[in-house]
Design goal:
Length: 234
């Protein structure tokens, strides 16, 4: 998460390098090499993450009618293995990755969004809700089967979650309109990532939930705080 100047970024068809770290498609998997110094407490973070997609999704979603923002869940189902030298850490498990692209900053088109993703017994599910500045709210619910085929579903009822310690709002969707927070992974003035539990399409499962307040992110005071967690290298 280190911000670097243009001269330290390079890209080819299959690889992206940002300073000493890089992402590269290799033998059908995404290899992520990390060589960074953490913040605010400096320490080395170095090693490799391998993400192996079970299926590649080609469908992308226009998040607003003007087409300024596009989201694509590239690999709704995958396996991940992490092998760090510093700190010494190894694990493997379920994985997912997506991409956002646009013609303006995110805060120009949205005030808030929340996203949830779960591994199901026969695939995976994604919930996506966005408060758009120029249009009515957006709500998406989708399920991917074991082969990676996409099915769009009617979004289930909204399930409110308690706000974070920084008072960032959180919510998701569930069959019965109820969900519980099991653990908080990240809690910042504008963003949270949590493990939640809820029922979807008749199956109770655990979800990774992301909540992002872009009004908070656009606040000048919050912008001044960013370099303490995301260092900038000349």
């Amino acid at each position: 998460m280190t911000e670097r100047g243009r001269q330290h970024v390079s890209r080819t068809r299959d690889a992206l390098a940002i300073g000493p770290s890089s992402l590269e498609w290799r033998d059908g998997a995404l290899a992520i090499r990390i060589d960074e110094i953490s913040a605010p407490i400096p320490r080395r973070i170095r090693g490799e993450i391998i993400i192996e997609p079970r299926a590649i999704n080609e469908t992308q979603f226009m998040l607003e009618a003007q087409g300024r923002h596009v989201w694509r869940p590239i690999a709704p189902m995958a396996r991940v293995s992490l092998n760090l030298d510093a700190p010494a850490l190894k694990w493997s498990g379920h994985a997912y990755f997506d991409t956002n692209a646009g013609d303006e900053p995110l805060e120009g088109g949205f005030s808030f969004w929340t996203w949830s993703r779960a591994t199901l017994s026969d695939g995976a599910a994604i919930l996506y809700d966005a408060e758009r500045r120029r249009e009515s709210p957006l709500s998406l619910a989708m399920r991917f089967d074991a082969a990676g085929d996409l099915e769009l579903l009617e979004p289930p009822p909204r399930a409110l979650l308690p706000p974070t310690k920084w008072r960032v709002a959180r919510h998701t969707r569930a069959d019965d309109g109820a969900a519980q927070v099991l653990r908080s992974f990240e809690d910042t003035p504008f963003y949270s990532r949590s493990l939640i539990s809820g029922k979807f399409h008749g199956e109770r499962t655990d979800w990774v939930n992301e909540s992002l307040s872009l009004d908070r992110f656009a606040n000048p005071i919050v912008r001044l705080m960013l370099p303490f967690r995301m260092p900038r290298r000349a």
